[in-house]
Amino acid sequence: MEQRPPHAEAGARVLVVDDDPTVAEIVTGYLDRAGYVVDRAGDGPGGLARAAAHWPDLVVLDLMLPGMDGLEVCRRMRGQGPVPVIMLTARGDEDDRILGLEVGADDYVTKPFSPRELVLRVESVLRRARPAPAPASGLLRAAGLSVDPAARRAAKNGTELALTIREFDLLTFFLQHPGRAFAREELMREVWGWDFGDLSTVTVHVRRLRGKVEDDPARPRLIQTVWGVGYRFDPATAAGEA
User: How many CB atoms within 10 Å of residue 242?
Assistant: First the structure.
């Protein structure tokens, strides 16, 4: 049996969906050399068919696809089951990047990009997707929320929450550090594991997470904005206002 490089997730299958054959070939080559099993598709319907035949551990998905764009492909895949998605976009427009994050992409890379950087992003997202060892205290609980890091399951008032990988990691981090304000740079470093990046990634994920854990996302009580700093998870304040 072929020996896989130690940094690749053992047996991890990556689906690359891109209509540019040159980009797809380069990305596939780098991922293959990194030790991943790689499937390819040149358009949205083909990507959905590939995913149905062999469900991937992660999808590298081009935003601008013929016929069915990457946003719709992401929505449909997420409707079939949870899967990490890294969105590729040829545009530098922030609105396009935010759209990708809004539909649940876990990360994005703007073309032109370094294939080595993309492989590192794949490794990072897959690593975050793995169940983590349970903390000594077991479940994390606060303000009607519960998080099981080992099972990667979260619930609000007993109802399970449908969270993306980054949303889950962000909620877990907040529950582990109640009452402390964090800058977006700190959250990107601690939750995403990056020392650099577009801080709008953090902003979008906080907004999405609020939509799932707050009683009124327009008036958040749990995840509060600390002006000039960042965000603070404040279950005590939420309980006091209830």
Answer: 9
Pairing of strands 13-17, 37-41: parallel
Q: At 97, list the tokens.
A: 């990047």
Distance CA 220, CA 210 (A): 7
Cα separation of 119 and 31, whole Å? 6
Q: Report d(CA 164, CA 153) in Å as an integer.
A: 11
Q: pLDDT digit string (tens) for 166-186? A: 888 899 999 999 999 999 989
Residue 173 sits at φ, ψ, to 5 deg, of -60, -45
pTM: 0.65
Output phi, psi for 130, to 5 deg. Answer: -70, 145
C-alpha span between 39 and 205 (Å, rounded): 28
Alpha-carbon span 93 to 169, nearest angstrom? 26
For 47-58, the pLDDT digits (tens) are: 999 999 999 999
